[in-house]
Amino acid sequence: MSYSELEEFVHSAKTVTSSVSATSVILIKQGQVVKELHAGLADVENGLEADENTVYYFASTTKSLMAFAVLLAEKQGKINLNSSLADMFPNISFQYIDADQYSVKDLLSHTSGLKHEAMTWTFSYTGLHDEEKRKQYIATLRPDPDAPKGKFNYTNLGYNLFAIWFDSQYKQGWQEALDQLIFDPLKLERITADVDLARKENWPIARPYSYKFAGGKKSIYMAKNNQTLYSVGVFARPLDVASVLSALMTANQNDTPFDPTVIRKSQTQLVKGIESYFTGYGWGWMFSQIEGTDMLLHTGGFDGASVQISYLPEKSMGVIVVHGESGIVANELNGAITRLAYKAMLGIDNSADYLSDMQEMTEITGFVKRSQQKIVDKHAELSARTEKSKPFLNSILGRYTNEMVGDIIISENGGKVKAEWGDLESIVYAGEKADALVLEWRPGKFYDATVSSDGNGSLEIMGWTFSKNVKAKIPGQNRLRLNY
């Protein structure tokens, strides 16, 4: 398959699946970009096409950057890879764990055996945290009974903790750490963990879409900001991410600004025998193989974003696939495009793969249509039930507070009862039982809740209990941007 045939596959697959949002693909060979292609619309509503300047959210693939930054910080003497949680946060009084027992390696390889659901949820979705709340999260880390220390369990937690640690080392926090350690040495133009600044400077950021909302043709309300980037993630042009990958490749090690010993360390495997689409994990990289060649990769996703980056260190090849869309179409395209791209660069015939991948994309179209119809039917069911429950819903207006995860505000606006939880928002639908509610915090994903029917009690959702703050003012008009 030639590069032009790969481009044909991308456009054909997006047409077959009715995916109109942005997709960009970068191919790197011998450390140099040999092909870039862009398809779809970065802004569907305004008809703006994706191009070489489009900036995407790179989600969890940022783990590879964070881990590399830690290795570079070690080279500068800021940290030791055998340092413990206690060493990282000497002023924290840990309530439930012996912090001396958890190392840097444990945290970055997802084997610490620790959990903090409030922290990982807040950092990713609501953004309701400040310096004091982050300290509280660290102090209340607990062992995970379902994933004991030493067992691989993929989670954002270890990387969340390093975002906080970098905050203690750099005046402008972990954003500055990535700038100074990685982005500035490479003289990159459009890559940042400070998306608030990027928006102020009018970077052309792809808007977020999901097949679960308006058929993927209208952007969803969810948009990352600096508070929810603690998850950890960066916004970047694919070409700038390609520059990072190129700097890690064997062919470029004489030209890279990074110490080759640090690069080689970043390519070492820390965990083996993982039964998944990858077989091991290292310093922010998943380990796999393609055509008998070792491949380092990482996937990432959020509502309105899906991405996969990978490279073959010894072949000095790499592939970046990123979308301004979330869901099965984008996720499957990541794998299919990556396979086809590497075979094209390796000179391996992949015509059979082309046909099977197109067939798979056709089959996915049926799944997407059925899923979309289920969501339409769900909304109809919820709306009919909710119309009969207006007196009850109006009786529960108010502010509900939980110490760990913040406030949920339920208010009436424009004839609809709505809920706001930091950056999250939803229409409040009536549940099947008298005290039950349903909230659609994320497009097509419904969360069950219960609320005290006397109007003076509590709200329970996702295992957290929120007490009603009877002294708090009920907002007459909140900032909700609901568009469904």
Percent helix: 25-40%
**What oligomeric state do these chains adopt?**
single chain
Radius of gyration: 23 Å
- pLDDT averaged over residues: 94
Which regions are unreliable across 5 or more consecutive residues at pLDDT < 50? none
If helices are DSSP runs of H or I spanning 4 or more residues, what is the number of helices? 14
**Strand tally:** 25
Strand content: 15-25%
Instruction: Classify the secondary structure makeup into a structural class.
Output: alpha+beta
Biggest sheet architecture: 8 strands, antiparallel
- The shape, in one word, is globular
> Strands across the major sheet, in which order?
2-1-16-15-14-13-12-11
Distance between the termini: 42 Å
